[in-house]
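Open question from group meeting: does this chain pack into something compact, or does most of it stay loose? Before anyone orders reagents, we agreed to write out a predicted structure and look at it together. Recording both the input and the output here so the notebook holds the full record.
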Amino acid sequence: MILIPKKTYAQYMNLLKASNVSADLFQEYVKWLRYFLDFCDRHVITPDKAERLRLFQEKLREKKQSEGKCRAAFQSVSLYFKMQEGQIADSRVYEGSNDTNKPEPPLQIIAESTNHTVSSPRLQRRSQYSESAYHEKSDSPDWDTVMESMANEIKVRHYSRKTLKTYANWSRQFQRFLNNKPPQELSGDDVKAYLTHLAVTCKVASTTQNQAFNSLLFFYRHGLKREFAELKDVPRAKKSSYVPMVLSRVEIDAILAQLSYPFDLVVKLLFGCGLRQFECLQLRVSAFIGG
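Structure tokens returned:
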């Protein structure tokens, strides 16, 4: 999820106080703002603020969020827009009847330049693989075709975006090393020459050389659809030996004291549970009912 810069977070908190928002709702408003920023980052959305906010409300309703939560999200994002430009979307769309027995009207965001509701374009989700190097167009269409084939094999296997990005980057470096040699002419000797280059010339670590080997192995098997012969006499990069740097408890406490919510919660989980960053960020809150 998108992290709010510390300066922006402080400005937003000051705006909540100036807007007489209950202190109990501060963190909820911050949560909805982060959800909105993450939503905008993940989708191709119009730059029109009212339209983005309306699409965000639609997404919340698809997720079965209550009207009360949708209202809080609306007010949270509206205040954020006010902070940015001194403007706020018309919040009167949430003014309902005093009769509590009547259902609240459906949420509608009014466009800034008209009194009519904005049309509902279809959301277009960016591919999670779009950052990978296989999308690059090179001087060799044959290489581009092979790269596309390899990428499709990775997607079919539901490998992570990080894996695709790594394999694609090594394959592109391999292509540049061979000066666009036609893919159909590649052999095991080319892989041997490249791995030797990494170890002898580039002096990479052993883990880096192994990563390149695994990437090219997948490239040959699933991109070129063939195996390369057993590699012998390839110089192996030396395994790095180093002493890890560990912070003292006093230093850790000093770091935690400088962090604001929700960054402090993430760091505490990393330290207390020994989690990796991506493991911590994938956690979800759920209720546990004991037997």
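Observations to bring back to the group:
The chain has eleven helices and two strands.
Residues 67-85 form the longest helix (19 residues).
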